[in-house]
Write a structure and sequence with these properties.
about 35% helix, 2 domains, four-stranded mixed β-sheet, 3 helices, alpha/beta, about 120 residues, extended
Length: about 120
């Protein structure tokens, strides 16, 4: 789950590495309620939820969301192996990310903390 704070409301996004299942809607509804009660200001718009799944069946998603009284959207995502030319050179390589994460892991171990 990822929540973003905006001037007039909140948005909560969740990325699933699996196909959409009806229980995902209930889980995101739980997150929206938590954001509404813990973060949302009284003058904010309702928190909206976006659930990104590997695949979604429109009818199953419609039935799963029918009784939920919160604004939730379900969408599919697609992964691509090619980096668009305009982003090449501006994004770290997999090796750079692994090195950075390994350094963070080692630093945390030295400090005796958890990751």
């Amino acid at each position: 789950m990822h929540a973003e704070r905006h001037i007039t409301g909140d948005a909560t996004e969740e990325l699933k590495a699996v196909d959409f299942k009806p229980e995902h809607a209930g889980q995101l509804s739980f997150y929206l309620t938590a954001v509404d009660r813990q973060i949302k200001d009284k003058n904010d718009n309702p928190t909206i939820g976006l659930l990104l799944c590997r695949k979604q069946n429109r009818l199953v998603a419609e039935y799963a969301l029918a009784a939920i009284g919160q604004p939730i959207g379900v969408a599919e995502y697609q992964l691509t192996h090619a980096i668009p030319p305009e982003f090449e050179g501006s994004l770290p390589t997999i090796e750079q990310l692994e090195t950075e994460l390994q350094g963070d892991f080692q630093l945390t171990e030295k400090e005796g903390g958890a990751i």
